Amino acid sequence: MSSDSGLVKADALLHEARDDVAAFDSLLEKRAQLEYEFNSLADACLLEKVAQVERIEERLEAMIARQRDKIQSLQNHKPGLFKLPKARGVWAEQCQQAQSRLLMLADRLEDVQELKHGMGSKNSRLQVLAVQKTRMNHQELAQELDEAQIAVRVHRLHQQQLAKKKQTQSMGLGQSLAIER
Questions:
Q1: How far apart are CA 74 and CA 67, in angstroms?
Q2: 114: phi > 0 → left, psi -120 to 50 → alpha, else beta; which?
Q3: What is the Cα Rg of the chain in Å?
Q4: Coil, strand, or helix at residue 94?
Q5: CA distances from 127 to 42, 109, 119, 131 (A)
Q6: Contacts (Cβ under 8 Å, ≥6 apart) of 57
């Protein structure tokens, strides 16, 4: 009779293990689907960010070109020696302001270009911004994805703990058998 109860117990454990595997497979499938959806949205957002960076870069380059033209025009219209000192002071101030603006625009262009050239790295600032924007705009999806990822981690951790427990038990059983001999 004890062998029948052992078989029933083994069948129940086998059935439970199959259910666990099926549930884990379902969880992995759900996580993969959520990751695909989230990554698709993040990729679309990244493309928008790339286009935005390129537009900003073009605008800054055009503004720099106009500012250089303005500086050239100011240089061409330098007040003569017979102009009042006030006129020369105003002209010098205008030149200084134009140069300052040109330097500011050049610094901004450099920042934008660094951002653009950093796009090749795996976790570029643009990718981080795109993921943040996707998380903000699709909070429910991000939360579902986070929950699915946590559930997978918890399941794997649980499986590791069970495997260690079984290994410890089998080692203990092996040692007790060795002592009994």
A1: 10
A2: alpha
A3: 34
A4: helix
A5: 8, 20, 8, 6
A6: 109, 112, 113, 116
Nearest to 103 by CA among 73, 141, 63: 63
Interatomic CA distance for residues 151 and 31, integer angstroms:
9
The encoded tokens of residue 107 equal 């610094």
The encoded tokens of residue 155 equal 């399941």
Which tokens hold the place of 153?
């981690």
Structure tokens at 99: 């140069």
Would you state the structure tokens that stand for residue 2, as one six-digit string? Answer: 């004890």
First to last CA, the chain: 28
Which of 9-13, 15-19, 23-27, 170-174 ranks highest by mean pLDDT? Answer: 23-27
> Would the pTM of this model clear 0.70, i.e. be above it?
no
Measured CA distances, 109 to 53, 63, 159 (Å): 10, 10, 52
